[in-house]
What does this fold into?
Amino acid sequence: MVKTIKGIAASDGIATAEAYLLVQPDLSFDKKSISDTEAEISRLKDAIATSDSELTKIRDVAKESLGEDEAQVFDAHKMILADPEFTGAVEQEVSDKSVNAEQALDDVSKNFIAIFEGMTDNPYMQERAADVRDVTKRVMAHLLGVELPNPSLIDHEVIIVAHDLTPSDTAQLNKKYVKGFVTDIGGRTAHSAIMARSLELPAVVGTDSITGDVKEGQTVILDGLNGAAIVDPTDDDIKKYAKLAKDFADQKAEWEKLKNEATVTADGKHFDIAANIGTPDDLQGVIDNGAEGVGLYRTEFLYMQSEELPTEDDQFNAYKKVLEGMNGKAVVVRTMDIGGDKHLSYLPLPEEMNPFLGYRAIRISLDRQEIFRTQLRALLRASAFGQLRIMFPMIGTLQEFRDAKKIFEEEKSKLVAKGVEVSDNIQLGMMMEVPAAAILADQFAKEVDFFSIGTNDLIQYTMAADRGNEHVSYLYQPYNPSILRLVKHVIDSAHKEGKWAGMCGEAAGDNIMVPLLLGMGLDEYSMSATSVLRVRSLMKKLSTADLKELAEKAVSESVTNEDNEKLVESYINK
It folds into this structure.
């Protein structure tokens, strides 16, 4: 009997093959008291050394199949094993509490995982929990003397079915035989999902129940376009999806042709599609996908990946690398967005009842000016190497923007006085993510050079709903007319003053939002690099003249998020 299981579309594509259940070994253990703690620590060190050796081999395989950038995740895993804050804490726990290594490893790893998973406003840091979990599993297996599954041994065409896939599982997938994977848990930002996209393997994650719904050897159609797995399909289903798979392959070939083209709508209007990055290492993806700029460079990763405040030269080199790499295309850099859930071990912040609404982002920069001024000097020096635009995060009042701009001008004047080469064409803008600022956009527009709408925070603050809280996740509604009215007001306010407005939140690459945003006249769309060609292709089919009326209806007449979703779908499918 045919069964369709829905999940999250993590990697595009369609595949059909028999199911291969990747079963994880039993890693349960009993807590034991240890009298000879030195011997126990020695046993732990042996397990760590063996794990490290395995990771070296897996990294080398990943480098061959996935490339240097993706293989770096295993360098990160090896760093966890070498990190005295992690392995040292496990040893200390064995020594202090006289418990077996399994118990100590379990206690310490759970503590690390909880810290990373608690960073609900930062998917990048949340995914570090998966790294710790992966490394812990490997060490635990060696302590217990059990073998982890080895996907590299698969020698016939399959679709992997698993509760979850670790990065090391994914790195060992042989594309010759593995046609895709489907898991119980996971999201689009998980390492396994990112790797699947690099491997161009269809993937569906977050089904909740796939491991309970399918048996080894059953035929599965994996629909990575719509996020579904069809178990025991009929012959007609198989034919239907074979055609869809061919259509998709043809479509991708067409998208690839757009790599070096400008983004122009059917009625000849040009828009910029840029990409979001976290580190200079992300640049290659931006270039490979033909983005027309960097619309959001999240500089906080520079601070979070360091054990102390990065120096002015450290920052200068990172910013210069990105500006030079973009070869004259615009790069929008967001100044440090620390606080909320993003903590620095070397920069203690006060305990707060509600840190997301507390001491964070521009509020810290204006209070701790020595940190802010260092970053601005590094940016100003780097500005000589490309087209730099700077924006300030979490601006809520005009005074905050004015204060930030004043500090920028002071540092610029000092550098110029010293004879340091600085661009005289640096635009200064702001993230539009605080509802109070969005409502007052007409006033802000008189003083900024541009707005960049951060939809993730703007939606959660407008809807008063933590987007990381599963109990209120239904309130993350990008098409809600209340959100669209704010967005339109921001765009109209910018245009009235001759300024430009962009969007760097998730909604900028959303197939439903793009037609609405085109209708509102949004100028720049910044998204994950892998979405650039899809959105460029979509825009080429749309006419802004038609979409103005559609957007007006969505803003003025619709009442719900669902109304607008149906409105756009019916327009696209007519």
In short: The two ends are 34 Å apart (CA to CA).
